[in-house]
Task: structure prediction
Amino acid sequence: MTRPVRSALTLAVVIPTYNEAGNVQELLTGLRDATSRFGELRVEVQIVDDSSPDRTAERAKQLQGELGTNAFSIDVDVRPTKDGLGRAYTHGFSKMLAEGRADLVLQMDADLSHDPKYVPAMLEAAFGGADLVVASRYVPGGGTPDWGIHRRVLSRGGNAYIRALLGKSLTDYTGAFSLFRSELLARVDPASISAGGYGFQIVLKDRAAGLATSIVEIPIVFLDRRHGESKIPKSTLVKNFLLVTGMWWRRSARRKREA
Result:
C-alpha cells in the first residue's frame, strides 16, 4: 500500500562504487522498490564510481534507462582514479547540497550489506521529525551474523571506545548507512573532513550528532558482501584508534581553555 507523504520531498541517495558490477542492479532495483511505496517521494540516486575496472559505471548507466521513472532517477559520476570512500561520499554530498534539490540525503554502500529493505523505516523516522537517522548493527534487533567472534569483538569494542571518548549516544559510528536532513548535512560540512575510510564516518557522525536536534537509530542486520572482495585495509583499527584519541585530546584541550 502506498504511504502518503505530507508534501513532495526529494531523497538523494549517494552510493560510492568500485568493482560493484555484480551488485549494482540488485541494489538499485531494491532501492527503487523500497521507496516506491512513498507516493510523493522523488528519489535521485547519485553513483560515484572510481573508474572501476569491472565496468560498474557502464552497468549503472544502462540501469538509468531500465529502472528510471519520473519518481526514480540514477546519475553516474565517474572519477578518474580510486580515491577512497570518504572522498567519494564528499563528492556526492557536495553535488547534492550544491544543487539544492534534496530534502534528505541517504548514504549507503554498494556491496548489499546495506539492505534497501531498511530504507522505509529510516524514511519514516525522518518524516517523524528526526534530522539524523543511523542504521545500527548494535541496537536491539540489529546484528552481524556473518562475522566471527574476533571481528565482532573488535567492532563492538571500537564503537564502545568511540562512544566513551566522544561522549555521544550513538551505538554505531563506523557504518556508512545514514540518513540526514540536508540542512543538517550542510552544517556538518563534509568537504572539510580530512579523515578517510572509516575515520570519515566517525567524524561525520560525531559532527552530525553534535548538531542534530533529533536522532533515531534503526536496527539492521548487516550481512557480508555476496560478490567481490572486501576492501577493508588491515591498518584501519590502528588509524581509527589514533583518530578518535586525537579528537578526544583536542576536545579536552579546548574545554580546558574555555573553562
Observations:
- Residues 9-258 form a domain with the Spore Coat Polysaccharide Biosynthesis Protein SpsA; Chain A fold (CATH 3.90.550.10).
- Confidence is low (pLDDT under 50) at residues 1-6.
